[in-house]
Amino acid sequence: MAARKKQVPDATRPVTLKILAEYLDLSPATVSIVLNNSPVAKSISPETRQRVLNAAKKFEYRPNVHARMLRTRLTNTVGVVVPELSEGYFTGLMLGVEEYLLQAGYLYFTVSHLCRPDLIEEYPNLLISRAVDGLLLVNTELRKRVPLPAVGISSHISVPGVTNLVLDHDRATRLALRHLYELGHRRIAFMKGQAFSLDSESRWQAINAIAKEIGITIHPELCIYLEKNSWSPELGYPPVRDLLARTRDFTAIFCFNDTAAIGAIRAIEDAGLSCPRDISVIGFDDILVAEYTNPRLTTVRQPLHKMGVAGAELLIKRIQYPDQPFVETVWFTPELVVRESTAVAPSPKPRRAARSL
Q1: Which CA distances in Å does 63 have to 20, 22, 40, 68, 99?
Q2: Residue 194 CB: number of other CB atoms within 10 A?
Q3: Is this prediction's pTM over 0.70?
Q4: Among the listed ranges 14-28, 200-214, 267-281, which one has the minimum average pLDDT value?
């Protein structure tokens, strides 16, 4: 019996799933599973999967997105909510998010609320109205439960139904303070982040606890409380400039983040001092530019790229397997990166003896 002759798709007409399946002599279901990268696609042989992909590329197959949405009620889009999109913390994190979503075949909408309460409240609802399949919340508080899978990165969310990715702030603080203590620093200035930063309170509590554990006294006159809604080095420059105008009786500064640390170093240099000869500076995050500042910045590294990838991956898994149980909290371990902005504490300057009359 002669083999059935393949019907080559008409190049002048759009290729449908049915036409592609007939050309490959496969069922439409098999072709659909491969092209949609369904979880059961692994049960199909690699050779068959490659045949489907090659044919789809050759005949420029375009899936009927509207039909798939009606069938699955999924759009292959997610919403990403962030405070802002400047370079620094969010750049490192979003590189990981984008990498995974691109690989998984998902598009995303990104909105930045600039820490405005009204936008924090409005944007999740706006994204849900755009039919996203899930929400990824970066350093953003979710105030009520949403009817979609949701993952929070550094968001400290207590709302049920959200998977939280959290850095171990106790370990991060211990690494930084132990490093300064071993270099001989005892009078240390501390920065507390802005009230709207969700990491601020956790890190400040850790600073108080770990400082007491190590034997470092926190002097109120050496504490800086950040308020400005800024993500540039301007965040750290004025507070440190003003601190130096009041007192220079300290040998190190533990900054809230790397951006503030860069501003702090500039303030130290502008005051006629040197970092780290006179004052050591340690940052937090290990943003992309930290290795290229002058001096190169010692910092506590958050695994930003890894956290971004993990956040996106967990969200997609929750979208694809909605009935499976999900983990509520995933902890990430920080790492101390020692560069050039910290050094041995300078020796105390000898006090002049009082002159006798």
Answers
A1: 11, 16, 19, 8, 23
A2: 16
A3: yes
A4: 14-28
Distance CA 182, CA 198 (A): 30
Radius of gyration of the chain from its Cα atoms, rounded to whole angstroms = 27
* 136-149: average pLDDT: 90
Q: Which residues contact 182 (CB under 8 A, 6 or more apart)?
A: none
- Count CB neighbours of 351 within 10 A: 6
313 DSSP β-pair partners: none
Q: Which helix (H) or strand (E) holds 163?
A: strand 162-167
d(CA 300, CA 334): 7
Which residue has 């590294």 as its token pair? Answer: 301
SS3 sequence of 105-123: CCEEEEEECCCCHHHHHHH
Which strands make up the sheet holding 223-225, listed edge to edge? Answer: 223-225, 188-192, 252-254, 280-285, 298-301, 335-337
Cis peptide before 295 (omega within 30 of 0): yes
- Cis omega (within 30 of 0) on the bond before 147? no
Token pair 């920080």 is found at 334
Specify whether the CB–CB gap between 229 and 196 falls below 8 A: yes
pLDDT tens digits along 34-63: 887 766 777 889 899 899 889 888 887 776
Contact call for residues 164 and 343 (beta carbons, < 8 A):
no
Cβ atoms of residues 110 and 93 within 8 Å:
no
C-alpha 282/C-alpha 253 separation (Å) is 6
> By the 8 A CB rule, do 223 and 154 touch?
no
Residue in 83, 36, 86, 78 with CA at minimum distance from that of residue 56: 36
